[in-house]
Amino acid sequence: xxNKPVGGQTNVVVHPLVLLSVVDHYNRACKQSKKRAVGCxxxxxxxxxxxxxxxxxxxxxxxxxxxxxxxxxxxxxLENMFSMFRKVNAREKIVGWYHTGPKLAQNDIHINDVIxxxxxxxxxxxxxxxxxxxxxxxxxxxxxxEVHDDGTPxxxxxxxxxxEIGAEEAEEVGVEHLLRDIKDIGDLGTLSHRIQYQLASLKxxxxxxxxxxxxxxxxxxxxxxxxxxxxxxxxxxxxLLPNLEVEEFIRSLSIxxxxxxLAVYLATVIRSTIxxxxxINNKLDLRAAEKKEEEGEEKAEKKAEDAKKAEDAKKAExxxxxxxxxxxxx
Length: 330
Fold this sequence. Notes:
By secondary structure, the protein is α/β, with parallel strands linked by helices.
């Protein structure tokens, strides 16, 4: 089983429990300040060079923002906490550490050397507790020794390792209930939600392409050294892009697009027809209600008129009776 993370081969899977713990740590200790939260990551290796990061705990950490070389990490606290976690779950071991960056800091390589006392090849996961851009809030790194082509002494630096958010079935159920408490998300399989997820993915892709473009521009200007591994990775990515100028592909894409647009057009026509049908029904119902109201008013007026006539006739009879009584008495 692999026990050494390698850039481009190792995949780090961060579980939701770790993200919740990190956000809670950040909100309690660093929310109102510019400090970053630092903690230890626990997990285990799986087949296929996959590192499962399933648990974490916070570490007492202080640093001088003006002088990055001045910092303190309580490794005695780390030893005591890990011994207690090991009693609960012996399968989980120290696999690395995290901080809430949101980017790499100058003293991270020195902090990583302290964590190496507990694990030979620790993983560093930078977790953005307050993400402002669309995409994964995690970035994983592993320390490597960089050898310079110009003969200068080698130095330790961080290499990027692929990462993703993964969960077991029980964790997925818990996260789903948590999301329902925060926001009524309804049916996760509806078209609107799928479109929102695709839009978020496209925004993340655009952001990554923009970063690649900015990096290549800086390399071209000579402000950054050429990293051959990055160039090779970009070349492999460009080689995987499909050829969009093949006539058969263009024809198939056009047919599929036309079919989809036909479905959209039919749906729009049906929706408009239903809306017109509802409008006509509403107008008919309104006319019927107005007619019924007019008939009611006419009946009320006729009833009032009949009552007035009856009252006038009664008064006339009383007047006639009074006149007859007066004539009789005279």
